[in-house]
Specification:
Structural class: mainly alpha
Oligomer: single chain
Shape: globular
Largest sheet: 3 strands, parallel
Strand content: 5-15%
Length: 182
């Protein structure tokens, strides 16, 4: 399961989780690895490892601490916390809570909103948010590197054209895909 977590974290494409029912153990770790998490109102987020004589796995010691403070992660894991969807949203584990019947629709809506941005811009944003190393200056330098790369991309040219023509950009034209990492 660690490979799945790694794939989510390393993906250049933002990943949206739709949680209905329970995200127990590894499910909690996977939800925490995703970029956005839609939870049904009856969803539960449960760190149950210790109840079964185990410690967390699937990368939860990494993913949970990217969503909550270290102190809160310690509390959640040591006390085998069982969080409601609302609690998970307040903690920053869930992005949004919706009625159970609307989980998939909301996840698709968020995915469509993500698709409104250029894929390469989303990839850079995800890469920079995922950074935990360096000081302010190194992060600022990475932002500049990203901007310089994007300023020369077909996606930026399309974004400018779309803005000037007052239309939505078309990110998937064949010439854009052939021209770069879109």
């Amino acid at each position: 399961m660690g490979d799945v977590t790694r794939s989510i974290l390393e993906s250049e494409t933002p990943v949206v989780a739709a949680v209905q029912g329970g995200a127990w153990g590894a499910g909690l770790a996977l939800a925490c690895a995703c970029d956005l998490v839609v939870a049904g109102q009856s969803a539960r987020f449960v760190a149950s490892f210790g109840r079964y004589g185990l410690i967390g796995d699937t990368g939860i010691f990494f993913t949970l601490q990217r969503r909550v403070t270290t102190a809160r992660a310690r509390e959640i894991l040591l006390l085998n916390a069982d969080l409601s969807a609302e609690q998970a949203a307040q903690e920053g584990i869930a992005t949004v809570v919706v009625p159970d019947s609307e989980v998939w629709d909301e996840a698709i809506r968020l995915a469509r909103r993500l698709a409104e941005a250029a894929p390469h811009a989303n990839a850079w944003t995800k890469r920079l948010i995922g950074r935990r190393d360096g000081d302010f200056e190194s992060v600022l330098a990475a932002e500049i590197d990203g901007q310089l790369e994007l300023l020369g991309s077909p996606a930026f040219a399309e974004g400018q054209r779309a803005f000037l023509e007052k239309r939505a950009p078309h990110w998937w034209d064949d010439d854009q895909v052939a021209g770069g990492r879109l």
